[in-house]
Protein: Lysophospholipase L1
Amino acid sequence: MDFSARYVALGDSFTEGVGDPDPARPNGVRGWADRVAEQLGRDNDSFGYANLAIRGRKLRQIIAEQVDAAVALQPTLVTIYAGANDIFRPKVDIDSLMEDYDAGLAALRATGAAVVLFTGFDSRSSKVFGTMRGRTAIYNELVREIADRHGASLVDYWRFGEYHDWRMWDRDRMHMSTAGHINMANRVLDVLEHERLVPTETEPGLAGGSTAVARAGRIAALRENAQWVREHAVPWVVRRVKGTSSGDGLSPRYPELTRL
Structure:
């Protein structure tokens, strides 16, 4: 797979890097895509990386705003994950959405770039998001068909059992923690058949996730659940009722090819 020169990452908060904070970087996050880019470009002075992902973006927004911009950068590698923010809406026509996804993938593959897709996560461990499990399974099957049709590679997030450990998740329980992003970077590097990340003493390992629910007693767990509802669940619902997004006003983190 030729991914050695220009890597462009497309998507929503998953790819932007939400849950992996780094105040020194654009939008205050790092994320698995940055980590993959750092590893791919470690011994390649000509390597360039762009990240066009913006939190809250739905699938059609990603196709409309990011695909043409990615094509203009003449990528040799593209990763794209889109659709999660559509699945969690009250109503969604998954078949229609995936037709647009298919067209976007065709445009990306026409550049000659290697393309990597993702299935959605199996949310059976979540009492809140587990209700969307059936929708995600349908979405995943269609993603697999698109990947086969266009010769794209697949990171099968649905089958990654390690993400049923709450330490892989940020305190909002919606985005991966730093540990989750590091693990996802290695999963992507595995698909690319590239050397994995080398752990460092400064990385938080599995300590960055929401561990209290997994380890606390009943009363403490109820207290944390109440706090989560106030700080994360309610604002999430309000944004959907109002038609606003956490990404409103944000720009892509790395709109042009850069070297981290």
